[in-house]
Specification:
Chain lengths: ~475, ~475
């Protein structure tokens, strides 16, 4: 392969310019060029795909780790069956173990648990029922057997498929219902005798048990990814993003008021930070699925077995209501009607004070959730925010006279109320945002109470009592 | 079974009251009572579950139909294999056909297509690759065989699992990637000889082909549910809901201004209609998955093969921006600061005119999408809306003097600007909503152009030409 002739030939084909010079006919040349272009195009596409994949793996190494974990689990189960003589090709028992691993291994522990439990329950129930129906059909003679089997299959498959649309089934047993139908079909129409069916059911359950245990062990032991932890960090990160969005929005609006010569550097970076709240608007679906999976997870880290994941959803709902308000705020400020700087100047202080105190509250809430400790500062900051609201209202109340004074030495070309519109909107929406932040505060407080977040007082009490005891409490929270 | 004795015995057990009267000791009695309570509880729960299911089946009969369709497909495939002698119990070839039906039969045609195509592609690719790897491993001797198999399995499973996180793979080939891993594992570690593997691959592909064709035929022939049609109606229904939400919000705000003695009947009904826009806020996920599935669907009804489903998503984005604004509008109007009726009276006319013309535009857009005909009225209605915006701005512009006049004969206890806040917010948000509705109009117009909606002029032209031709065009749109 590394001989001179072969190398020479390759260079000739690889290098289009040389090829064209050869007098072998333009058809071959064009063919080669075409193939070359096609291969090159494929290569470039493949390369771009790999670069994208590499980017994802770099930014979220957990996803690459999940891939490796699946590879590991499959290798283990394959080696296990490869070594054993009972394995006899596709269709043997190994298949069920491998299939279980491929189908139930999800990226979070909760989702893996959900699928494993559903698979075991669905298979057991359907296996039992299927054997029963099979027995009844076999007893009722050759003539009725296919009729009984067909009707029971049709009815159960229809009813179970329909039940997957019912919300309570859908959230908890969607996958189990599918496995139920599958197993029931396989068992009820199989032509085995009933005693052989029992043996079969036994081996199938054993292999599924092996597959599910392996999935659960691998997903929990090697870099476990908990749906609960993901939900937890999603919520506190979203709170931070809301705070940034609110701050960014207000400072963007007033940016040239204080100092019109202010430099615009770091503007883009600041913009992207201010825009990040937008992902809060669409986080409902991912929050709900994470909370759904988190319920299946055992106690881990700082989260107990019955950690109130539903309460995170309530915080999420309150946050989204805030985000809608900030979204409206953001776009109203970009509206066509611009308030003159002279008017803006009058409100810049109270508006900025309110947005700063509001975002402080949000950031404090984010810290409360992040550290899972009740805050002593939060009440103070909420009352700061309320004072800022009152000051803004007071500023508005004293506004007309000031504005009239302004009007006297300015020629009013546009009617004053038109100019006031965006400012009035800003003020209303800021006040509305503050009132919605109070709902977020309430939701977080409920969460903190139900989830028994540490409070400073309790901490002091427990540190007087015994320091080690307190640490133990946090590592193994009461289930 | 229907003999009198047997019937008698059953009644005795079934009827708890008879049982309790017998003097057999209180323990048994309590047991019976306990069992009775448990059974009764189960019965009540089951009954409630059935009632709920019945409610769902009644309100959305398509879901029940889907259940029946799955039952039908499974019955057909089961009967097919039950009749044939080649079927030999679980693990035989029938299993793959049944499994294919259970796993790939989704409620919409598009989702079924997506899963079927993915299943066939994934199985074929992995089968080919698996046979190749199996051959290489078998050729390289007993010593290297398990090593080559293990390493290739680990690497491919890891890489494919990771690739499922890459967006382009995730939206189009998520299921195919899973099937790829599954088939590759099964084939590569099977202990069959290569020539037998070919035979096996052939039968497996055949059974999968039977299963997928059956799924596609049943899902398309019996009451087909098209993801595309669902997306289509979701979008035009959401437009209607937005219009209702906007109208309801504004008329709710001004409800006691014109006629404070107005009756409050039908209030709740009206409220629920006005609140219905809220589901627009969270429709992103379902719109995206429907658009994703709709791309797999063949031409059906009024939709061609390359119907621009992506454009519906753009309409959806524009609609959601509108909905955020209406959400802010809705809650700001319920804020603590109330504008006095005297001030409201001054703006009731232009505000109502704007909200009416805005919701007219939205309703017209809904009709455009519903009937798939370009509207001749839409330009007129958009300019009506813009005139209403200008009139509202003019009303605001003339407001200060009017308000001052009012102030003269009213004792102003609250500073006037505070009272103005909610009204100013209403006005800004209404104007902002109108400008966002224009974005919706643009998105719908792009959709209408790309999807070749009929326009009135074309209709006239074609009706002059040939009426039948026009009908034919609508039934079989150009693909």
């Amino acid at each position: 392969m590394a001989s001179g002739g072969s190398l020479e030939w390759r260079v000739n084909v690889g290098d289009g310019a040389t090829e064209v010079l050869r007098p072998e006919g333009s058809f071959v040349g064009r063919m080669v060029m075409g193939v070359k272009g096609f291969v090159w195009g494929l290569f470039v596409k493949g390369w771009m795909f790999l670069e994208k994949a590499w980017g994802i793996a770099n930014s979220e190494p957990k996803k690459a780790v999940h891939g490796l974990k699946v590879g590991l689990a499959l290798s283990i189960v394959s080696v296990f069956y490869y070594m054993r003589p009972l394995y006899e090709g596709i269709g043997g028992n190994a298949m069920w173990a491998i299939m279980t691993v491929v189908v139930t291994f999800e990226s979070t522990v909760g989702a893996t648990f959900y699928k494993c439990v559903n698979r075991v329950i669905g298979t057991s129930l359907a296996g039992g029922l299927g054997i029963g129906v099979h027995w009844v059909a076999a007893e009722s003679g050759d003539r009725f057997e296919p009729i009984i089997l067909g009707i029971s299959l049709f009815l159960l498959a229809s009813a179970t498929t329909f039940s997957r649309f019912i919300p309570s089934i859908k959230t908890k047993f969607d996958y189990g219902a599918m496995i139920f139908i599958l197993t029931f079909c396989l068992v009820s129409i199989s032509s085995y005798r009933v005693d052989k069916l029992f043996e079969l059911a036994h081996t199938r359950l054993t292999t599924i048990a092996i597959g599910t245990s392996l999935c659960i062990i691998v997903s929990m032991l090697f870099c476990p990814m908990w749906a609960g932890s993901q939900l937890h960090s999603l919520v506190f990160r979203n709170l931070d993003k809301l705070a940034d969005g609110l701050d960014g929005c207000v400072s963007e609006y007033f940016k040239n008021v204080d100092d019109p010569e202010m430099e615009n550097e770091n503007q883009e970076c600041h913009d992207s930070k201010a825009q990040s709240y937008k992902c809060v608007l669409n986080s409902k679906a991912s929050e709900e699925s994470m909370a759904n999976f988190a319920r299946w997870e055992p106690a881990h880290g700082r989260f107990g077995f019955r950690h109130p994941w539903k309460k995170y959803l309530e915080v999420g709902v309150a946050m989204r209501k805030c985000a809608y308000c900030i979204e409206a705020l953001h776009d109203c400020l970009n509206s066509e009607i611009k308030a003159p700087n002279s008017l803006k100047l009058l409100l810049v202080e109270p508006c900025k004070a309110l947005s700063t105190s509001s975002s402080k509250v949000l950031k404090e809430l984010s810290i409360v959730i992040k550290t899972m400790k009740k805050s002593t500062k939060i009440d103070l900051e909420v009352s700061d925010m309320n004072i800022a609201v009152q000051e803004l209202q007071a500023a508005i109340a004293s506004f007309p006279s000031t504005q009239t004074a302004n009007e006297e030495h300015e020629a009013a070309t546009i009617p004053p109320l038109m100019e006031l519109l965006p400012l009035a909107t800003l003020v209303s929406l800021l006040i509305e945002t503050a009132s919605r932040i109070e709902h977020v505060v309430n939701a977080v407080e409920t969460l903190a109470n139900v989830a028994n977040f540490d409070s400073e007082e309790e901490k002091k009490r427990s540190s007087l009592d015994n320091n080690d005891h307190h640490v133990a409490m946090r590592v193994f929270p009461e289930a």
